[in-house]
Design goal:
Length: 518
Amino acid sequence: MIWTILLIISFSLAIATHSLHQTHMFQLNTYKPKVQVKWLFTNRRRLITQSVGVLLLTAWILLHLPSGVIAAAVIFLITAYLSSKKSYKKPLVYTSRVIRLLTTLGILLVGAVAATIILREENVALALILPGFYIFAPILVLLSNLINQPIEKAIRQWYINDAKKILAGMPRLTVIGVTGSYGKTSVKFFLSKLLSCEYNVLHTPESYNTPMGIVKTIRNEMKAFHEIFICEMGAKNVGDIAEICDIVKPKHGVITAIGPQHLESFHSIENILKTKFELADAVGGNGFLFLNYDNEYIRTKKEYPNIVSYGIKPEYDMDYLAYDIQVSSAGTRFKMKDENKREYEFTTKLIGTHNVENVAAAIAVANKLGIPMEKLVMQVKQIKPVPHRLQLIKRNDLLIIDDAYNSNPSGAKAALDTLSMFEGVKIMMTPGMIELGSRQYECNKTFGIQASKVCDYVVLVGEEQTKPIYDGLMEAGFSKECIRVVSDLQDGFSFVDHINAGGQEKILLLENDLPDNY
């Protein structure tokens, strides 16, 4: 009995750590069963090797060794210890939903423990029940979610209705929706800074751009004195933007860019375009629709009323044009014409030409909402870089250009253009770009070819997903000795620290950083 209890305790620890990991991945996969199943399929080799290994070894020990219970308990303890030592960039957040999920999962596991106690004398039963529950932990997480689905749906709807009531009680509030394949977070922060000089502004924090993230912002942060709410709207499927618009009812909309982002779920550029313009459909003729005419997909959409166009390419006729752009490591200077063709000069500490695109969007919106351009000139000077989006960080003898947030083909090329402006030894560290569907290999290979023209060294994080970049570098004739493939960022930084720069400054571009579920 004592050894059976020890086995149960060790099993409980192993299954708990394994189940927490699976729950964590489910959270990172936005609680979507289809996405989780796809993640499980993608990682099937590692999961099967680990789980089947535990299953076979434990079953054999329990069936063949006289002291098999003790040995099996040791295996479970070792498994629990190794699982608990895993480190994550973004740890599991114990939200109310996660707690409910774990509670249901715990009830299922108690059943396993109870069966073990009842059948403690039957080693065959032990050999099947305990390892069996371990190997099926990923399925149990999905089963627990399915069991909880009715209550989760009811709770979700209650929160949404509560957020709608709050917004309905603020008839003077102006809601501005911001969406796009990329650039939306930067535009949101820049616009908030510009509008705050005359209005009380609330914006969704960080990258809160899902329905429940937006609902949480409204319920926790919205106050009676707020005059403008800037709502970043993210999407991975057709209909996602329409769902958010149904909650917040945007008065004005900004569409920053359209590109091959999240193609794994969208499947085509046409679906991305349709989804992003769900914001335009929601705005209708009630407010202004701000469109980036630099983008080839966006400037073709001219059927909407009250379009205000902006961009940096003078060959396209637009209402707000930024031009004569001068970029250096110290910042950026540019001129801009408003819709009346009056010229103004702006300076900012931001680096990168594509940041001028994002600032131009914010200027256009702020000016149309009544803030004079002369006042915006001063506000633009005070804009700070958004973390992990071409953010400059000085670390000893290393200058880091941190562009680690969610890379895409356009942004990656712009980041390389920014790196090329610096003097010194140019290094890029990247795990490559993801969620590009059938175009993933092509886009990453092109990225490698582009990097070969700028970088002195390239550090590739993860051998498998960076192979297209490696192929692009090789095709472009990049020196093999100047490429290092590492397993993680820590090894990458170690390599960079040992590069002999010959007295020059080392400039490191961090391009993208994959989440824990990759």
